[in-house]
Amino acid sequence: MITDKEFTLRLIRQLSQALEKLILDKPEESLMQKELDFDSLMRDIFKFDFHTLSSKSKEEIIGIVNERQERDHKDYYEMLGDLFYFKGKTEANNDFLDKAKTFYELYLQTSGIFALPIINRISEIKKALE
């Protein structure tokens, strides 16, 4: 039987994969046919919509992640980085890009992974915010 935590983690990973494909301009046909419903996914993961999430400060969002199990933090940070990066790029929102940079940096710290695409995105965001 799948637990709520396992289900949530699966949703986070699926959302991250979908966002990666959108960021890389390689969306699958199923994603193109069925638009990602960020608010619905945010409600499933965080119990509130994207607007509510995006209105929170970086520190508040980090606090929400810290309430989860430590082993899951990297997945949350990767998904949050992808989410705010995608939304920041599509809406030309520097606040979202700044949040994406923070969450990507936290992802690199918590995962211990050398992820060149993430490092490149952080550099791109820094240039955009200058």
Q: What is this structure, in a nutshell?
A:
77% of the residues lie in helices and 0% in strands. It has 8 helices and no strands.
Q: Report the sheet-strand fraction.
A: under 5%
Regions with pLDDT < 50 over 5+ consecutive residues?
A: none
Instruction: Count the E strands.
Output: 0
Instruction: Report the C-alpha radius of gyration, rounded.
Output: 14 Å
Number of helical regions: 8
Architecture overview:
The chain is an all-alpha fold and 130 residues long. 77% of the residues lie in helices and 0% in strands. The protein has 8 helices and no strands. It has helices at residues 4-23, 29-33, 38-46, 50-55, 58-66, 73-91, 94-111, 116-129. α1 (4-23) runs parallel beside α6, α6 (73-91) runs antiparallel to α7 (94-111) and α7 (94-111) packs antiparallel against α8. The protein is globular, with a radius of gyration of 14 Å. It starts with a helix and ends with a helix. The relative contact order is 0.12. The model has no long low-confidence stretch (mean pLDDT 85).
Task: Give the arrangement of secondary structure elements.
Layout: H1 4-23, H2 29-33, H3 38-46, H4 50-55, H5 58-66, H6 73-91, H7 94-111, H8 116-129
